[in-house]
Amino acid sequence: MAAESETREGAGAPATPVTAARQAVMALCAAATGAELDTALAAVGYAGPVQELRRPETGLVMVRGRAGGDGRRFNLGEATVTRAAVRIEGGETGFSYLLGRDAVRARQAAVLDALWQARAHRQAVEAALRPVAARREAERARRARQAAATRVDFFTMVRGED
Q: Which GO terms describe its molecular function (predicted)?
């Protein structure tokens, strides 16, 4: 990863490996429970100062959908979102946007994002979030099994005319 670029991409540009990895960590933080974020922060063990750039605040965002997945866009409704922004001792700035109204979780996720950006804490943050990734994968597999149990394969059904 010596030649990795940490520059910003334009809209529609492919994400660099660093950006894709950060997005994955931010997604794990957004999916984590408050207890999981507490555990992750304790496991990382960061004791330095955390400056709140934007205290957690709650607002609404418009959720858009598409008919059939590729049809015209339409406004589906509004969702409550909480966001936060923090800066840690090394100058790294962390952000979070979470569905719901949990200000504590939003701040915790922003701190973990900032810590991930600090190379000294990156591996510790990734290790601390592995249980969240494992839980999400287990939930995905459970949903896939439930959906597979109701699947009907019409091509293998035998007609009674043989």
A: lyase activity
The rounded mean pLDDT for the chain is: 89
Give the number of other Cβ atoms within 10 Å of residue 129's Cβ: 25
pLDDT digits (tens, 9 = 90+) for 66-92: 888 788 899 999 999 999 999 999 999
pLDDT at residue 12 in the model: 62
Which residue reads 């909480």 in tokens?
82
Sign of torsion over alpha carbons 34, 104, 107, 143: positive
Question: How would you classify the pairing of strands 50-66 and 73-88?
Answer: antiparallel
3-state secondary structure the chain: CCCCCCCCCCCCCCCCHHHHHHHHHHHHHHHCCHHHHHHHHHHHCCCCCEEEEEEEEEEEEEEEEEHHHCCCEEEEEEEEEEEEEEEECCCCEEEEEEECCCHHHHHHHHHHHHHHHCHHHHHHHHHHHHHHHHHHHHHHHHHHHHHHHCCCCHHHCCCCCC
User: Would you mind telling me the total number of residues written for the chain in this entry?
Assistant: 162
Burial of 60 from C-beta contacts in 10 A (0-12 / 13-18 / 19+) = exposed
- As beta bridge partners, residue 66 has 73
> Please, which pLDDT band fits residue 160 given cuts at 50, 70 and 90?
low
